[in-house]
Amino acid sequence: MAEEDGQSYIDYDAFLDPDFSPTAFANSLVIATNNPSDTPIDLSTPLSRVLFDIQEIDTHIHTLTTKSAIPLLTHTKDQADAGQRIVDDVETQIASLTDGHQRLQKEVIQRYEEADQVRIAVENLWETVRIGRSVTRCLTLGRQLETQMTEVTGSTNSAGQASKEDHRAMVRASNTLLAVRHILAASGPDEEGEHLSKVNLITYLQNSLLTPAETSLRNRAQQIIREFSMSSLAPSSNTPATYAQSEETKSRTTSALLTLQMLNPRLLLAALQAYPRTSLTSSQASIARALSNLPTLDRTLLEVSARCQNIVALESLLDGIKPPQADPTKPTAGAEEQAGNLLDPLLAALDTSSLPSFFWRSLAEGLAPRVGDLVSKGGMGARALKTQRERVKDSIRECVLRGSQSPGGIRGRAGAWEREAAVMVGSVTGSLGR
């Protein structure tokens, strides 16, 4: 700038230097206009110098801007016009983008949102339909179960006629119960029973029909098993059972066995274990009483033989029944799942190879201490027992052999009953001495 205006005494290069220091420049002015020995420092001269330089620079700027006003204005106008053109072009592009976005939002985004709402509605409707179908199926099965339970217990129509109880309906009702349980147990995601636990109607169905029906079937089946009797040896039987009656008993008991097996295999096993144990308890008590009163011995042994014949009949019946598909929601033991019939799990639970053998050996084990107590107490009963030892021995042996035979129409398992007879005889005569 000093080269452009040679008449200017201002050193513009010094002011434009990046390392320019106002403090150093002011100090140099003060030193240049004052002597170092002067006590009062004169600042008016350097200040006047600075003001004069500023005025000179201002005049120079004014002169330059006056000479270059038209080019500067022209350049500024050109820049402003160019900026306006750019702004106009950008606004046009922005307007185009805005229109495109609005069209996109209208044609795509809004339609997607509407379609998504439709999708949600369809999914909710489908879920409702699924639940409705499951509820309908449960109610249909419930109505079917209600009819079957009426057949099980018998009913009276409007004319006052009572319908006969149908034990086969127990099996059909059990199958219906298993079908409902299967639906309710399938409560996982996308399964048939999902959300059914939240439906009040299903809860009412469970409480008012399913649970009472299951309890009724279970109790009825246990009662039939508990009252099972095929023998005609019992003194209370006036006439032997006919073939039709025997077949009806077997059929009714088979229905009870299948019902318990389907509803709860563990309950079936418990009921079957209780049957011979109940006979054992009754037989031990009655024989112990009869041994102290020998005139009643023959009648008592006949009753015991009848009980064992019922056990033989039950064994034969269980041996011929294959276990049905049990309820998958109920726990079962491994032996029950692998068994080919209903007898094998019972034999395994009682740790025996034959139910009659278990009956006689367990009966002998319980009788020995009772006879020992009778003999140790002495008295007329003990003397009569010792006197009629051979008669008692023959009667007990005949009781075992007679009781180990199958009732009419049923062939029992073959067994070494002489061994059981010897065990029974030994349990009674062993305490009598020689």
Please characterize this protein's 3D structure:
The protein has 434 residues and is mainly alpha-helical. Helix 7 packs across helix 8. The protein is elongated. It has 15 helices and no strands. The longest helix is centred in the first third of the chain and has 85 residues.
Concise synopsis of the structure shown:
With about 425 residues, the chain is mainly α. The protein has helices at about 10-15, 20-35, 45-65, 70-155, 170-185, 200-225, 245-265, 265-290, 295-320, 335-340, 345-350, 355-375, 380-385, 390-405, 415-430.
Secondary structure elements and pairings:
Elements: H1 12-16, H2 22-33, H3 44-67, H4 69-153, H5 168-185, H6 200-226, H7 243-263, H8 265-291, H9 297-319, H10 334-338, H11 343-350, H12 355-377, H13 380-387, H14 389-403, H15 417-429
Helix pairs in contact: 4-5, 4-6, 5-6, 5-7, 6-7, 6-8, 7-8, 8-9, 8-12, 9-12, 9-14, 12-13, 12-15, 14-15
Helicity level: over 70%
Write down the overall geometry. elongated
- Proportion of strand residues: under 5%
Instruction: Tell me, rounded to a whole number, the average pLDDT.
Output: 84
Number of discrete helical segments: 15
* Spatial gap, N to C terminus: 155 Å
Structural class by secondary-structure content:
mainly alpha
Q: SSE string, helix = H, strand = E? A: HHHHHHHHHHHHHHH
Low-confidence residue ranges: 1-6, 409-415
Cα-based radius of gyration, to the nearest Å: 56 Å
Descriptive keywords:
434 residues; mainly alpha; 15 helices; 72% helix; 0% strand; elongated; disordered N terminus
